[in-house]
Amino acid sequence: MNARLLVGPALLVLSLAACRSVGTSSEAKPDNAASGASTTTAARRHVGNDPGKVGAGTPLEAKPGNELAAFAGGCFWGVEDNFRQVPGVVATAVGYTGGTTANPSYEQVCTHTTHHAEAVLVEFDPTKITYEQLVVVFFKNHDPTTMNRQGPDVGSQYRSAVFTFNAKQAEAVAKIIPAEEKERDKKIVTVVTPVSQFWRAEEYHQQYDEKTGTHSCPLPKGLPPKST
User: Fold this and answer.
1) Structural domains counted in the chain
2) pTM of the prediction?
3) Structural domain boundaries, residue 154
4) What is the pLDDT of residues 102-136, one digit of tens each?
5) Is 19 a catalytic residue?
6) In CATH, what number is assigned to the domain containing residue 180?
């Protein structure tokens, strides 16, 4: 695991949740880019980076035949990297949603005053993976039993949340939660709420693990079995 240093007013958090220190003045680069050495930072799957034509709080619209989903489960770098390895996912982007501040910056979100979560927007092909299967992947790859916390990352921006796009999605999550609680023998505190405006995060956050080659996991847990 890697470390990210978050600095905000009266706040200093050392994160070990698959994140690392970055500056905000330039785009993240692969670790060995400066040496000119070859890298292995290309996506392990060919996945787009424009789900729902995401922008600065603009209306979201999936491509014909596709659907959208949105999840928050701690540092959005690792969460996005997980979903980009899921067959059927066609595009992802990280951003901020669920809060009250318009067009927030990363620094503002780190103050925990915007009420936004670090979230991942996912566009997927429902003929290749179902929404229910995506929800299972989401639950298997973070701890949904801790309130506003993933490991040492503490604060509302790290909350476990599912942002639904319709009543059918909300019903699907409600049916999956009891099984996940039974498996853990703990109460799940994941917040399930309709998606609000989604603000695309700064470019250096997008596909960060691919840019740096710091993939948090070889493959995400909870993948559906391959069809034969």
Assistant:
1) 1
2) 0.81
3) 50-212
4) 999 999 999 999 999 999 999 999 999 999 999 99
5) no
6) 3.30.1060.10
